[in-house]
Amino acid sequence: MKRERTDLAVAGLALAATLAILAVRGFGTPDPAARGLDALGAGLALLSAAPLAVRRRVPAIGYAVSAAASVALLALGYPLDAPVATAVAAYGLAAAYSGAPAARRRLALVAVNAFVPAVALAYQTSGVSVWAIATELLAWEAIFLGVWVAADRNRLRSLRLAEAQAYARRVAADAERERDLAAAQERTRIARELHDSAGHAINVILVQAGAARLLQERNPPAARTAIETIEEVARDTIGEIDRMVRALRDDEGDVPADPGALDELITRHRVSGLAVTADLPAPTVTLPRSVAWTAYRILQEALTNAARHGPGSAAVAVRFDHRHVEIDVTNPAPRPAGANPGPVAVGGHGIIGMRERAVLLGGTLEVGMTQETFRVRAVLPHGGVPA
């Protein structure tokens, strides 16, 4: 609708300009022999400008009608020193066909540039010397050629603008997909972290609650100690979850980033009742943050499994070198009566989470149970691993 109003306005302005030129008998000193504005001239002027109102829908017909009316005005002796309407119609034709297939494009170019020769022929048939107005005709030819070039350049600019807009939309869509993927990965990470943290705490609470139930009558002080441990573990778990959520939000939370956190984790399990023997030498390297965090979580899950499924003891060995950190956790795991000898397949969400963390860093995780011993062994490379 906006374009239609614009085209109507352009047609009105072209008609007004054409009538004005005819009314003043052309530019400069009026030619006494020129024909003045009359009904026929006004009608031809209207016929030359009216097609501009539909130049976007039928550019070829609009140009042909406008050009024919302008040539008729000149052939009848009207002083049309500037064919404004026809020049605008030529621009519309060039804009529509400059990007068309080769045959249609050449035909449109010939039509635009044939206007001036048609005017020369009209002058010649009406008795006007073409050589006397050669300069004016050459100027008109340059104008119409420039109109074609301008329309073609404007078309190319519009195409580049459309391509840039399409590219911007694709970039925005790709960014949106990346944000959705990042959000999905973040949700997976949150679920894994919550499982590790809350699962560890709940298992410790279960062990201590069972101990308190068994000791409440024969050993009340020990039962109270177990209940106090439950309270402490629950309080620590809430704080750990808060720290984890902060870390997931800004990636700068309170996350174990040094091997000393492993010693603190072992101490917590000892307090909760798990007999842990630990071979934890002083580290000779500074672990990247991601490796330290993965080692912490793997050890946490392994000790939780030992407390939950074993008889209450575990052995931890952690070794550092310039390329790897190795975590080895073993605990007694008596076989059920009637179980077949040999390796036993093990699995579960906790073990899957440990394996995913190790593989993510390019490491390995071995989990198995042989000779009534459950073993978790993780090897995490840290040389060149991005933190």
Automatic annotation (TrEMBL):
Q: What is its EC number?
A: 2.7.13.3
Group of enzyme by EC = transferase
Known catalytic reactions: ATP + protein L-histidine = ADP + protein N-phospho-L-histidine
User: What are the residue boundaries of the Signal transduction histidine kinase subgroup 3 dimerisation and phosphoacceptor domain, all occurrences included?
Assistant: 186-251
Q: What are the residue boundaries of the DUF7134 domain, all occurrences included? A: 14-157
A GO molecular function term, named singly, is: protein dimerization activity
Which Pfam families does the record associate with it?
DUF7134, HisKA_3
GO CC term, one of those recorded: membrane
Spans traversing the lipid bilayer:
36-54, 61-78, 84-100, 107-124, 130-151
Do the record's keywords include Transcription regulation? Answer: no
Q: What is this protein called?
A: histidine kinase
Q: Which organism is it from?
A: Micromonospora costi
